[in-house]
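Pasting as-is:
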Amino acid sequence: MIKKKHFILSLFLFSMLVLVYVPTASASTSTDRIAGYDRYQTAVAASQRGWPDGADLAILAYGEDYPDALSAGPLAQKYNAPILLTGSYNLNSDTAEELNRLNVKKVYIIGGYAVVSKEIDNRLTSMDITAVRLAGQDRYETALKVAQKVGLSKGVFVAIGTDFPDALSIGPIAAANEMPLLLVPPNDLTATQKTFLRRYNIPTSFILGNSEISDEVIHQFPNYEIIDGANPYERNINLITRFADTLNLDKLYIATGEIFPDALAASALTQKNKNALLLLKGNTLPNSARSFMSSNIISELHIMGGYSVISASTESTLANLPPQIASVDNISDSVQEQQDYDPPKTVTVTTTNGSKAKVPVTWSLASVYSQLTGTYELEGTIKNYSGKVYLSLTVTPVWNKITAEIIQNGNYIFPSTVNAIMSDNSVKSVPVTWDINTVNLNKIGTYKFEGTIPDSTQKVNLTLKVTEDSQIQFPDLAFKTLISRRLGKTIDAAIYKSDVLEITDLYANNSGITDLTGLQYFTNLKTLYLGRNNLKKITPLAKLTNLTYLDLRSCGLNDVTSLKSLTSLTFLDVASNSIQDFSPLGQLTNLTSLYVSNNNTSDYSPIRLYYKNLVGKDFYL
């Protein structure tokens, strides 16, 4: 029977089933505007929205024409920088004020001196800002300069350079995918572009356009994919749809596609959360955009520009198009214990218009390391949805991993059974079949083997360490005497690693031991009693990873750091010591019995993770 455990905010979890409980809720899409009285102030408003606490770097582009500015979006992503606009001969006063507010140290100017004059560099220098110019002989070479700065290892996006809507669509998508935007002439590439493509190894190319870009241009790009459409607005939606998996569509930016500055400023904002930019045809919503918004759940719309650009009526229409959440579907998943588990970033919902959609979900934990078998609940929230989402996660048991050590030229008999800790914390012995039953190894090293559990897809992993035999020194006479008697040797006889590797259990309670040196070679030990010895250091225990039972009661201990690697332990007694910190025991999640009372602290919170699985304990949380 699987134990049911409920956790609301921040414990831990594990997985197999994901059950989502879904009260019906609905909410309208929120809208706001990012706008100023002109294109320069709108860019400033975008900068203030995205970088309220300032930025080390900003990008500066010419505000009156588009050619050089279009490639700036991916550059903004690379440096987490806003895009600001300027005139040709004088730095726009609103832009200058925003640069001061941002406290930037460096500005990338996009374009040559004919577009953004040397006077702008001088003004920036006077403001203690370093100006770096990315410019070529024309718009195409300028885009190449920017692309080199962005980086080409992931590929490139390509758009026509004689108009701006396609490039505006690409900017946020290219930024989200950390790829630059190249502008191309309609009929053939420039000589500089051809040299560029021959020089750099570009893995893939995404080309936005139809007949406006000739086959002569397209065929010169390696591994190209064409995203087509009858017009720029249809291509805008097709591009968003193609890369939807890399975008966060919960938030959408809206700008007109008839002028470039507002959409350009938006491309710096979209990259911060990998959002998309939807283009309107002036103040009109194209049919392709209407269809897209009617079939996607969108929580927030950010309108770029004032009411003279996109009217209040259009804003209202946009806000009422996205459907709302009617219910959340159940989902299922699976993971074994001791494995990392990342809860899904999205859940599938049914919308008010009957369609299915994936929406982002925020869980009380972002990731989980599944420590124990059992079933757990994780609570999640969806933006603009009043109900909670509950993720029911069941962790399935994993068969024990086996480690063993033998002496060089010795024989090792593979076990015929292995123990598995089941979901109710019981231990079950199950048969295992190995591809080899006996091994005689004469080479020093570490060897790995795999066994099969009948009627199961799970495997058993065995790590066998082959070492050279050597004599062991025991500085502590009491310890040496105890081991000699166990082996049937005289106190003067030498003790070797080959002797102690045969020992799997050892009783040494109240034996007058003060120094455990030599114990580190007992790597096949499973049961060890050391209670009531005066032990200041237990460092040798760190090597005994096969231990399942360990008694260290009343040993004068103040530090148990050496025990943190003993993850096979099911029983541990460290009561009546002087321990102040139990955090090293936090990962010993196979423990079913733990005794820690009468120490120098009552803070047992480090073992909260597995506290409810303890059958034997002498404390409470």
